[in-house]
């Protein structure tokens, strides 16, 4: 088993080919990528069907959740700093 790295354009191309009607099995044999990997790419790059997500992929949702957690942490730090400066 080799650890190959694929760029995002290649991954999106494979997902687009899947959505245009190619089977995962055919794509796997033609491009030398495992079926499991292709299914993961399909999950990552396909629009999420949850309510209110309008075209957001799983990857986009994950990035937004990380950003939200970072912003919440920054907000808490600022609140603590504000109470410290208010006491002075």
From TrEMBL:
UniProt xrefs under SUPFAM superfamilies: Homeodomain-like
Leader sequence segment: none
Compositional bias segments (type: Basic and acidic residues): 57-66
GO biological process, alphabetically ordered: DNA transposition
MF term (GO), any: DNA binding
Pfam families in the cross-refs: HTH_Tnp_1
Region named Disordered: 47-66
Composition-biased stretches (Polar residues): 47-56
Record's protein name: Transposase IS3/IS911 family protein
Source species of the chain: Natranaerobius thermophilus (strain ATCC BAA-1301 / DSM 18059 / JW/NM-WN-LF)
